[in-house]
């Protein structure tokens, strides 16, 4: 389907894209992706830019959220990936191996190893060897690590709430549901590819 054929993000009647509102991205309610899509439509009017409108906005929002939500973490001297490791240990409530932490945080094993080394040096996690297999390590939060996570989380969530404050509860619920459905679909495809 092309951007001008069949139903797509458009005027809701004919499926024809409504580009009249995307020319000035500095106006309230307009975004940078709309301008990119408008430009592509001018160059290739026969292409369906629907996926670009969705994926482009997801990627742009993710980048902006990452910048915004990392502010409280930076004040605590943490990076987002370090906080994700500490958070995984805190929310699961038990020791995890580095490979389990990699799965929990969607990170590579090498990245987890590097971060664990830094967090261990800072006294936020401790590692112990497995009694049956010396190649396996178990990681747990120290008291200082637990206190840090518990101290940061309320301000982190308040900050994220402020970032999303432009959306009402119903809009947030709808968005969470749509993104959850998309994520489940994508994760299912990824699992199928790995099998």
From TrEMBL:
InterPro entries tied to this protein: ArsR-like_HTH, HTH_MarR-typ, WH-like_DNA-bd_sf, WH_DNA-bd_sf
SUPFAM superfamilies: Winged helix' DNA-binding domain
Pfam name, any one: MarR_2
Keywords: DNA-binding, Transcription, Transcription regulation
Gene3D superfamilies according to UniProt: Winged helix-like DNA-binding domain superfamily/Winged helix DNA-binding domain (1.10.10.10)
Biased composition (Low complexity): 14-29
Domain of life: Bacteria
Record-annotated HTH marR-type domain positions: 51-184
Positions of the UniProt region annotated as Disordered: 1-31
Single GO molecular function: DNA binding
Protein name: DNA-binding MarR family transcriptional regulator
Originating organism: Streptomyces thermodiastaticus
């Amino acid at each position: 389907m092309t951007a001008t054929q069949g139903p797509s993000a458009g005027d809701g009647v004919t499926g024809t894209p409504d580009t009249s509102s995307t020319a000035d991205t500095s106006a309230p309610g307009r975004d940078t992706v709309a301008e990119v899509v408008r430009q592509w439509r001018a160059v290739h009017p026969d292409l369906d830019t629907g996926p670009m409108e969705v994926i482009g906005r997801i990627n742009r929002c993710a980048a902006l959220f990452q910048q915004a939500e990392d502010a409280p973490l930076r004040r605590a001297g943490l990076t987002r990936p370090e906080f994700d490791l500490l958070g995984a240990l805190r929310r699961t409530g038990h020791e995890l191996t580095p490979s389990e932490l990699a799965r929990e945080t969607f990170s590579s094993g090498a990245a987890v190893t590097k971060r664990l080394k830094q967090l261990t040096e800072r006294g936020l996690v401790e590692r112990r060897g497995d009694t049956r297999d010396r190649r396996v390590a178990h990681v747990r939060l120290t008291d200082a690590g637990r206190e840090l996570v518990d101290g940061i989380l309320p301000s982190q969530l308040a900050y994220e709430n402020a970032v999303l404050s432009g959306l009402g509860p119903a809009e947030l619920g709808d968005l969470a549901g749509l993104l959850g459905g998309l994520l489940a679909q994508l994760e299912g495809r990824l699992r199928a590819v790995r099998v």
